[in-house]
Amino acid sequence: MTTLLSLATVSGNEKIAIGIGLIVFVVLFFKLIGAFIRFFFRHPIWFLLLLLVGGVGFAFSFLLGGAVILAVLVGGGAFWLLGNFDQ
Description:
Elements: H1 2-8, H2 12-42, H3 44-53, H4 55-81
Helix pairs in contact: 2-3, 2-4
């Protein structure tokens, strides 16, 4: 609940930067899901092998972490471009 209250107190430029970061994350998340589905339908033997040794979860977590890092960098860049680091 505090996150929602703190989000209500930010300026318009900060909301834009947060929105840009969220949009980038959502787009990358769904691209990651689609890529996983396509890859494992095209390569079922790799899917079964990775499923047995636990590599599917590791790969997904690793790539999801990369998507989060990229979304934070893009959101931070938008935050910087909008001039909110001057305060």
